[in-house]
């Protein structure tokens, strides 16, 4: 005997009309010639609902006694003996009176289905077992009667019976749901607009997930791999690197702009099982994804783009979010980055490549350039070391070439080396490199060889012109490097201040603003501190907001501090700031 079919009318709260819809379906089936009986219906004193049951055969209830009280339950044996085509059974999550054959009514329904009888029933979303905690948080009322989600998920049809909260409350006021003595308490507590709206959303989302499961089964059965954009699914690819937090938050913001969208995070593990990312970082990123309402997944594969796209096709993903490559330009050119290869194979799936401060070649879009990048001892000594390595190396190479090298070629190559040194360290290293290169050219490539004497006047002129040219080029290169630094610095300052001003105008909270300050200045932690003026002898400081690890709690615990007002100070830990950085921080 074929198993019967189960149809559920799902509602967000009592009174939306589930029982009415069930009886109306029974009348429709009966008018179409089906053999329909009422196994159990509870009209709750509502006359339109009771009237709709008229004309349908009703199986008498079974009377039962428990603790000297009388109860009635569905006569399961009576329905089975009657063997109708369809049975109407109200309140699927109901708990039977002790002594019944089954503890729960859904178990009675399962027996009817096994006997080949179709069942039409009703269910409130708050009775689903997986939503019990959520419903209790919303309404403050624990649900004593619950139904395993799997029972409802196996239903052949689920239809939502929906009413707006305002209309439902109006029905309550008119006495169409509860007796008059319960109306005021219900409207004040369970039937508040916020509660009903939240329960309605729960019902819609739960049903949407069931529809999605059915769609996925259909796609799998018919071998459909191209994404159907019935629902926006955004997948962020995680490598286990430090950029993951940035990608997760950016993907969450993208998802938040699309109502009903879903966020997934995926990490691809190599087939050898050896993790490429930091396990602790991945664990923290997993916790972050789940705290933001997304789901974390792992898959195995040696070809990362292929693994990403296979998972995306299986999950009907519509957008993939990747971080900009941390590899160098040469490596990316030789093999192509993951982003480039994913875009090339993605087909109809959109691929978004997000930049971040750890990307190759990135100086952090808003990180203020440090002065030592254009001037300062670090650049000076780097240039001097570069000259000490390049000039002897170049000389050795030219000597090995022997007769193929003359003075003019040597001077041109030395001039190139001087330009490189000037770009790195400015004028002084370039001047030292120019003089050293002139001496090397004289000693190794000007007759008489291996002597600092010069035999021909033309060679003297060539060497002097070379040294002068090298000095001028070095000065120009150094000035260009300083101008470039100043332009980049000014642009970064303007963008940083503009970004902060925009964030404040949009009402960003203090921790978010402080996090932007921390990123811009490359600091480890930043706090906004407030001084308690009531303790003049020894001022006390309170943390108004903070960001980063181990933020300072007092100005004298910080590496940098900047007064914000009479009683407020911005304190930071991480590195000392230059005078330029201090100026921007004050701004």
List the helices and strands and how they pair.
Blueprint lengths: L5 E6 L6 H14 L4 E5 L6 H6 L4 E2 L3 E5 L2 E5 L2 H7 L3 E4 L15 H10 L3 E7 L7 H8 L9 H5 L3 E5 L3 H9 L6 H9 L4 H29 L11 E6 L5 H13 L5 E8 L9 H13 L3 E6 L3 H11 L4 E5 L5 H7 L2 H8 L4 E5 L22 H25 L5 H19 L1 H19 L11 H49 L4 H12 L3 E8 L7 E9 L11 E4 L4 E6 L5 H8 L1
Parallel strand pairs: 1-7, 1-8, 2-3, 2-6, 6-7, 9-10, 9-12, 10-11, 12-13
Antiparallel strand pairs: 4-5, 14-15, 14-17, 16-17
Helix pairs in contact: 10-11, 12-14, 15-16, 15-17, 16-17, 16-18, 17-18, 18-19
The average pLDDT is 82
Strand content: 15-25%
Helix content: 40-55%
| Gap between N and C termini | 81 Å
The major sheet is characterized as: 6 strands, parallel
Structural class by sheet pairing and helices: alpha/beta
Tally of helical segments: 20
**What quaternary form is this?**
single chain
Task: Tell me the radius of gyration.
Answer: 38 Å
**Uncertain residue segments:** 361-366, 370-374
Strand order, sheet with most strands: 3-2-6-7-1-8
Count of β-strands? 17
Bulk shape? elongated
